[in-house]
Amino acid sequence: MAEQQGKGGAQNFMDQKKVRNAELLIPPNQLKAKIGSGGIDETVLVKAQELLENNTIDFKPIALMLVDVLHEAIADAKSGATVGEKAIEGMLYPAMQLKAQGGMFHYPLISEIANILVNFLETVVFVDKDMLDIVVAHKMSINAVLGSQIKGDGGKVGRELRDALLDACSRFYKTRKNS
Amino acid sequence: MSYQFRNITVLIVESNKAMFDITKQVLIAFGVNQVYSAYGYEEGFETFCRLNPDLVIIDWLEEPHNGLELTKRIRTDEKSTNPFCPVVLMTGFSQKKRVLQARDSGITEFLVKPYTARALYQKIEQLVERPRHFVKSENYFGPDRRRKREEEYKGPDRRTTEQPVARPVTQVSMSTALQKAKDIKRKHEQGGTPDDIKMEDG
């Protein structure tokens, strides 16, 4: 039996070898040729990080626009204008942008809420009312943070909000697992 | 002597101006003085071909043509001025399946937003100091997707010189597997690592 498996395995290996026809290329390292060696000074990195942290970009109008996109995607999913994976993708893109940009532009709480939503949307497999209720809860939370202009982690309220959303997602997973 | 960033041209393909502005500021702080912008897939590819930059930083971008498709186009379109150009994908996605999707599109590095200046620098440093070989096959053209290449290994390539030998498979019952798992958990709780447990066959 083991011998048969061995022969079969060898045959599979040979077949695989036949179809794999890849060529390895070594392109010239143009970046190295232009930049040289030596890295950069730590003070440059510190200065660059300060620039990031002290940026004065007003995120609120950008965030409101992304929340609008999310709102429309939810409405499309509710009405059936988009279904399945397309409906999920429609909600996922603005959520991902809120996560990415909230953290860059002084709204880490929005970034965290959006991150919970991104993880949720990456995991769900189909759209239904319960699932959309959870997305709406995230959208409302983000709206609330924007309305109250909570910059920073939101302290105790922020923690409670995050915990409540995580709990809602967790309960959703449990019901789906049991059904 | 340190990196001479002033010698390179960087193209940032973003979905919004605020993200472009902030990334440009960081690159200027590094010393890059030629940073160009493009918004979306079409403008991104047109600007890439016109400027022939040394490095491209691409956002995930909105459908129908996202940043992964733009990367594929840079790698495979006959109009592309440099199919080998390093591409850093910057995105809010961080799930493994997204990283794999991005890798299969031909990106060189993956950077999660929100990012730090150090994280961006480290990605660029990787491109400079550890450039990837390229793989050309029937259905893929782009950087070698295997992260670690054993450059130092000088020995024979077993896969091409030896006949493959089927490894014997040992059947393990569910109860044995469960017991092993419990042992690992117990050891873990006692402060040890799973490596401390010897997985004996049978």
Provide an overview of this structure.
The complex is a heterodimer of chains A (179) and B (202). Chain A has 179 residues and is mainly alpha-helical. Helix content of chain A is 77%, strand content 2%. Chain A contains 8 helices and 1 strand; from the N terminus they run αβααααααα. Chain B is of the alpha/beta class and 202 residues long. Chain B is 39% helix and 16% strand. Chain B contains 7 helices and 7 strands, in the order βαβαβαβαβαββαα. In chain B, the strands form 2 sheets. In chain B, strands 2-1-3-4-5 form a 5-stranded parallel sheet, with helices on both faces. A two-stranded antiparallel sheet of chain B has the order 6-7. In chain B, α2 (41-51) runs parallel beside α3. β1 of chain A pairs antiparallel with β6 of chain B.
| Tally of separate helices of chain B | 7
Mean pLDDT of chain B: 83
Gyration radius from CA atoms of chain A, angstroms: 24 Å
The helix/strand series of chain B, from N terminus to C terminus, equals: EHEHEHEHEHEEHH
Which chains have the largest interface?
A-B, 57 and 57 residues
- The best one-word shape of chain B is globular
Reported for the largest beta sheet of chain B, the result is: 5 strands, parallel
Strand element count of chain B: 7
- Runs of chain B in which pLDDT lies below 50 for 5 or more consecutive residues are 164-172, 192-202
The spatial strand order of the largest sheet of chain B comes to 2-1-3-4-5
- Give the helix proportion of chain B (percent range): 25-40%
Distance between the termini of chain A: 42 Å
Q: Give the assembly state of these chains.
A: heterodimer
The Cα radius of gyration of chain B reads 22 Å
What gap, in angstroms, lies between the N and C termini of chain B? 59 Å
The average pLDDT of chain A is 90
β-strand percent of chain B reads 15-25%
Q: What portion of residues of chain A belong to β-strands?
A: under 5%
